[in-house]
Design goal:
The chain has twelve helices and twelve strands. With 387 residues, the protein is an alpha+beta fold. It has a single domain, classed as DD-peptidase/beta-lactamase superfamily (Beta-lactamase, 3-Layer(aba) Sandwich), CATH 3.40.710.10. The strands form four sheets. A six-stranded antiparallel beta sheet has the order 2-1-12-11-10-9, with helices on both faces. Strands 3-4 form a two-stranded antiparallel ribbon. Strands 5-6 form a two-stranded antiparallel sheet. The longest helix has 17 residues.
């Protein structure tokens, strides 16, 4: 695995990266290499953290599911029970469950928002409360690229009385020593890897072409797809991802910062009994419910197949998370990833600061395959040893 990881860096696929694997709750692989900056002067260190984009969606889901565990939130209750303003625009009966399964039909805000709005939680939450669904909720699913974290996080905030980042830190990541943050101060800036522009590719060129259009000429689903990434203009991190303001803001779907070890540690609880260093992350029953298929098929936003449980991407033939049919987790833009395999009690984390456009991330999936091949080879030779 060390050689395979080194080959990924040597190939130029990544500038800097880290790989971590836990088995039965114990670390068996913990690797990092490369550079944390564009000039390639600063080495990627053991404690380097980086923006992991949509890896944070699953961690956001864990926060909401903890409230379900505690009996404070009912997945089948209307969102408006916890967030009364959400009842606007014919959403009074929309259930909490749809926020986790991407069936809420709220992947974008139609009303143009000014630059800087993504750093204002109340501005985005109020806009989503007033937004009408883009399709009939429950009639299909479409990836809530940047809005899911706000939708989930507002329920967390209303129920707990705590800002999302504080709740995450105080209830999970702090007590369980998980190095993952949503919104943080300058004290962590020295540990942050710069996110670098993605490598040139046909996918990157096509994405840029879509973003270069004038949204005033768009309507319907075309406008929805554009606004999902560009309203407000920097909501996906474009042009601001390495700034102090971006790191300080709370965008749970998009700007969570962490490293491979942190992600694998958290998923090690989800691959086991739900506990991590004495902290109950989720109950085993809730993990089973969250990792069961809720939707699978053509995604209205992404226009390709996606498969989701309650907040988690599920393994599927089009995008396998190893050989287990029950593996679940979440990719982030460029190839960052965390997932759990409860059948093998295995947890996987991958972080990087460059990556590629597209959604297949073949070099990451090759690492996954090698992990399982190594595990199979060692299955009769005792426990795995850390590398």
């Amino acid at each position: 695995m060390r050689d395979a990881f080194a080959a990924v860096l040597a190939s130029g696929f990544e500038a800097g990266a880290a790989l971590a694997v836990y088995l039965d709750g114990e670390p068996v692989i913990d690797l990092w290499s490369g550079y944390a900056d564009a000039a390639r002067n600063q080495p990627w260190r053991r404690d380097t953290i980086v923006n992991l984009y949509s890896v944070g969606k699953a961690i956001s889901a864990v926060c909401l599911l903890r409230l379900v565990d505690a009996g404070l939130v009912d997945l089948d209750a209307p969102v408006a029970r916890y967030w009364p303003e959400f009842a606007q625009a014919s959403k009074a009966r929309l259930p909490v469950r749809y926020l986790l399964t991407h069936q809420a039909a709220l992947p974008a805000i139609a009303r143009p928002l000014p630059s800087g709005s993504s750093s204002s939680w109340d501005t985005i939450a109020d806009a989503l409360a007033g937004q009408a669904p883009w399709w009939e909720p429950g009639a299909g699913h479409g990836y809530h690229v940047n809005t899911q974290g706000f939708l989930i996080g507002e329920i967390v905030r209303r129920v707990t009385g705590r800002p999302f980042g504080a709740y995450l830190r105080e209830s999970i990541t702090g007590p369980a020593r998980v190095d993952f943050f949503v919104g943080f101060g300058p004290e962590l800036d020295s540990r942050c890897a710069d996110v670098l522009p993605v490598l040139p590719s046909p996918e990157a060129a096509e994405l840029q072409r879509q973003f270069d259009v004038d949204p005033r000429g768009l309507s319907g689903l075309a406008l929805m797809r554009y606004n999902a990434y560009r309203n407000p203009p920097e909501i996906s991190g474009m042009g601001v991802v390495n700034t102090r303001s971006w790191r300080a803001a709370e965008l749970p779907s998009t700007n969570g910062h962490g490293n491979a070890r942190a992600v694998a540690r958290l998923y090690s609880a989800l691959a086991g009994d739900g506990r991590l260093d004495g902290v109950s992350v989720l109950s085993p029953e809730t993990i089973r419910r969250a990792s069961a298929e809720q939707v699978y098929g053509e995604d209205i936003v992404l226009q390709r197949p996606t498969r989701f449980g309650l907040g988690f991407q599920l393994t599927m033939p089009e995008r396998r998370l190893g050989p287990s049919p029950r593996a679940f987790g979440h990719f982030g833009a460029g190839g960052s990833l965390g997932f759990a395999d409860p059948d093998r009690r295995l947890a996987f984390g991958y972080a990087m600061n460059q990556g590629r456009s597209g959604w297949q991330h073949k070099h990451v999936r090759q690492l996954i395959d090698l992990v399982y091949a190594a595990l199979d080879r060692r299955s009769g030779a005792g426990s795995a040893r850390s590398v």
